[in-house]
Amino acid sequence: MNIREKLEAWEHEYLCEYASFSDQSLGRDVPEPMCDVRTIYQRDRDRILHSKSFRRLKQKTQVFLSPEGDHYRTRLTHTLEVSQTARTIARALRLNEELTEAIALGHDLGHTPFGHAGERALNEVCSRGFRHNEQSIRVVERLEKKGKGLNLTKEVRDGILNHKTTGHPSTLEGKIVQLADKIAYINHDIDDAIRGGILQESDLPLSCTDLLGKSTRDRLNTIIHDVIANSEGKGDVVCSPDIRQAMTGLRSFLFDTVYTNPVAKGEEGKAKRMLQELFGYYSSHPEMMPEEYLEAIESGQEREVVVCDYIAGMTDNYAVLKFQEAFEPSGWKR
Fold first, then answer.
1. Distant-in-sequence, close-in-space partners of 64: CB < 8 Å, separation ≥ 6
2. Considering the domain 3-265 in this protein, what is its CATH number?
3. Which end of the chain has fewer CB atoms surrounding its CB within 10 Å, N or C?
4. What is the per-residue pLDDT for 234?
């Protein structure tokens, strides 16, 4: 019995009956020989961690566009916080931690530069629309490794696709990530907003903080404990109605005071117009995109979809650079 097989046997001894067992995975679209050391979900996690799209998350906006300071969240640090919260819950519930981590690390791979402003920009100009969860699936299936994709398991891809509120993950591990995503961004967006002077802890609605806590640490502790207490031994991952209502209240408060705040979001209009200008430019001049995207168009893929692929994969800084190259005059040189 090799190491992987021992790990698979351990899962059946330790994990709860509702867990997704590695040796019962629905597998990959392209069958591969099994690793003798890592389980199938461990390999998925590693593939995501080593992907180029994962590394680019470090220079993609989470909420605050181009903040002055090193301590604001980026799309990468958000992803890591989602992963940490999700793993904590998965371990406590004796669900598959490796599957949970793989979904969490991959859930935002398809996000655009400049956060949700970038997502809205592409959604408005692409006739097929643009949704970051669907783009994340496209990244792992079609775009990574020069069009070969990462060949992830069906369970990981299902969790990535369904991580949004409207999604319906088929595994409890996917449901953990769906909930951990909200737990993470509600709390770290409050923390960043306080750091940026947009609000103070005392501004938060007492109807929420009296129940959840008066600090980020207390709120995380309360919510995570509640999820574990209300999900343990059950075939679902849920929080209590009161906690869910308080989280919803904080989320609504953030939309009213932070997500639409002119101080925090004042540059989003510029970013949105910039990406839409780039979309028009590359749609008219596809030859200005890298060779792999030209080859995708020549192979029959829709031009506007390929243009979205290119723009969505950009970091904030790279998008600004490409906009300058396309639309700002440069000095003449012989």
1. 72, 73, 192, 196, 264
2. 1.10.3210.10
3. C
4. 93
